[in-house]
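Dear colleague,

Thank you for sharing your sequence with our group. We've completed the structure prediction you requested, and as agreed, I am returning the results in plain text so they can be pasted directly into your records. Please verify that the sequence below matches your submission; if there's any discrepancy, let me know and we will rerun it promptly.
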Amino acid sequence: MSATLSSARPRRGRPYGSWLRGAAITVVSLVFALPVVWMFAAAFKTNVQVTDPSVGLWFTPTLDNFRAVVEAGQIVRSMGNSLLVGVVSTVLSAVIAVPAAWAVGRFSMRRTGSVILVARIVPAISLLVPWYYLFARMGLVGSYTVLILSHMFVSVPLIMWIMISFFAGLPVELEEAARTDGLSAFGAFWRISLPLAAPGTATASLLAFVFSWNNFMFALVFSDDRTQTVPVTLFNFISYASTDWGGLMAAASLITVPVVLAAVLGQKYLVAGLTSGATKG
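Please find the predicted structure tokens below.
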């Protein structure tokens, strides 16, 4: 009888715990969603309405901000630049980092893992002066090449750090069986481990692309008017005398769409990759 009562007690707390968890999730979601909602709403307001607290979410929307931003042409060009730099830097980083992460995870290269961690924690701003001097001497400042290389400095360690634990969590017996059948070590990686690591690769690549898309510091220092990316273009809406809030919010809304679409389309791989990386290795 006592055993029955003790086993029934935790069940009484489940509805309360579920309600509390749901309330906490709702509060956190609202905290993160409200600035985004305000941004999208402000994109359809005039500058006067944006700075008027009494307007709120009830107003007559206008498309003038989007029309002005698109007709100016700079935001469209910079979105193309960001897409080019983000895709190329992410693909090249994945090509380098994924096999390297497999080698580190499979062969227990602890020193290499420590070097990767150091590369992750070194502030990138500390490298801007030597990088600028080096790239200026090579004549690369203002080119796509320097943006891609600078983004890869962060993307390669990021992808490796995520994928090391992922590969370490995959059953090594599968690769051993493949090698028994005649495959080389790289062949076992290419045919066995790499397909199994697709969710983790997709997750790491998506995070690297988001970093590249949002990066402001590298683009501000290394780009010019021709290679300017979206964060720098947004910064141009802010001047010393005034700020074009309507245009700024419209441009910010436009550049948010590609990242949101990428996250939605890759949601299945993103969730699988994050959960696998958190529970394995």
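Summary note from our side: The chain has 14 helices and no strands.

Kind regards,
the structure core
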